[in-house]
Design goal:
With 123 residues, the chain is mainly β. It is built from no helices and 11 strands.
Length: 123
Amino acid sequence: QVQLVESGGGSVQAGGSLRLSCATSGRTFSNYAVGWFRQAPGKEREFVAAINWWSGFTDYADSLKGRFTISRDNTKNTVYLQMNSLKPEDTAVYYCAAKYGSSTYSLREYEYWGQGTQVTVSS
């Protein structure tokens, strides 16, 4: 059974940092891409960042480049999202997801999803 479990969310003040974790299990993800998406209240879910597990190639939403960093730890089967210089507009539920093959911005192409973790940034 494939599982993606997010953790690391919480409440921080603007300018602070958080590191989200996405622990994967149930299969080998070496041929998969893992992405982070977020959904703010009243808004559509949007792409944040993704990483191709086998190559380490990363991709980011243009608006988040320089503040967010995605990485993976092969020994722990975990993908991380380091978020720095957080802003109130980063407040959302953050989800990790996995798809076979290369990463894409399209959430519809991701097969497996976690339950999400709440990030709240106060001004």
